[in-house]
UniProtKB/TrEMBL annotation:
<feature type="region of interest" description="Disordered">
    <location>
        <begin position="173"/>
        <end position="199"/>
    </location>
</feature>
<dbReference type="InterPro" id="IPR047958">
    <property type="entry name" value="B-4DMT-like"/>
</dbReference>
<feature type="transmembrane region" description="Helical">
    <location>
        <begin position="110"/>
        <end position="136"/>
    </location>
</feature>
<feature type="transmembrane region" description="Helical">
    <location>
        <begin position="75"/>
        <end position="98"/>
    </location>
</feature>
<feature type="transmembrane region" description="Helical">
    <location>
        <begin position="33"/>
        <end position="54"/>
    </location>
</feature>
<feature type="compositionally biased region" description="Basic and acidic residues">
    <location>
        <begin position="173"/>
        <end position="182"/>
    </location>
</feature>
<keyword id="KW-1133">Transmembrane helix</keyword>
<protein>
    <recommendedName>
        <fullName>Transmembrane protein</fullName>
    </recommendedName>
</protein>
<keyword id="KW-0812">Transmembrane</keyword>
<keyword id="KW-0472">Membrane</keyword>
Length: 199
């Protein structure tokens, strides 16, 4: 089973449970309907955030190089869309038989409510992923990752090759200059002696 499908199924089922609890609790305490709804949504979002954090931490540990990490944004986007549409469809179907469940028409359930669920899942999951990446990267030294990246780019680093050639040319010129000076110095001394004798 793909990662996004597993997450989509879990959060679709969890959203249906949340809506069933919402209907039962509001029927028991009608004056606290707003608080009940907000609390259930917060708890739902907290589960999404924790799962996203675990995904981000696991991915960062498996791939220290940020360029080689998985595309968790797409995974969670598909999971959120699936959870929204499926949970809306299931809740609408249950509402046909269970009148205490607060549902709207089928179109609204698979569009408006599905979009809300998808956005909630996607945003909170990505925040969790970013938090997981950040906490792992904060404890990991930057130098090993940069050194690994430099080794990967060693064959394609044009500037490194130019620097190496320039350093070699400089060393050759310095060495040649030293040899020229050492060879010419005796001749220069002999010329100076001959000039003195002519005077």
């Amino acid at each position: 089973m793909s990662k996004w499908l597993l997450r989509g199924l879990v959060f679709a089922a969890l959203m249906v449970i949340v809506r069933l609890l919402q209907g039962a609790l509001i029927n028991a305490w009608e004056t606290k309907a707003g608080m009940i709804s907000i609390t259930l949504v917060v708890l739902y979002g907290l589960v999404v955030l924790i799962w996203g954090y675990l995904d981000g931490r696991r991915d960062a540990r498996a791939n220290p190089d940020p360029d080689r990490r998985q595309d968790l944004a797409m995974t969670w986007l598909l999971a959120g869309l699936f959870a929204g549409v499926v949970s809306g469809l299931v809740a609408w179907f249950i509402g046909l038989f269970y009148k205490n469940l607060y549902v709207e028409g089928l179109i609204n359930e698979v569009t408006t409510f599905a979009a809300f669920t998808a956005l909630l899942v996607f945003v909170l999951a990505i925040l969790g992923v970013a938090l997981g990446h950040w906490l792992v990267d904060r404890k990991t030294p930057d130098e090993p990752r940069r050194r690994d990246g430099d080794e990967d780019r060693a064959d394609t680093d044009v500037f490194a090759a130019v620097r190496d050639d320039r350093d070699q040319a400089y060393d050759y010129d310095a060495h040649s200059g030293a040899e020229t000076e050492s060879h010419n110095s005796p001749v220069a001394v002999a010329d100076d002696d001959e000039t003195r004798r002519n005077r």
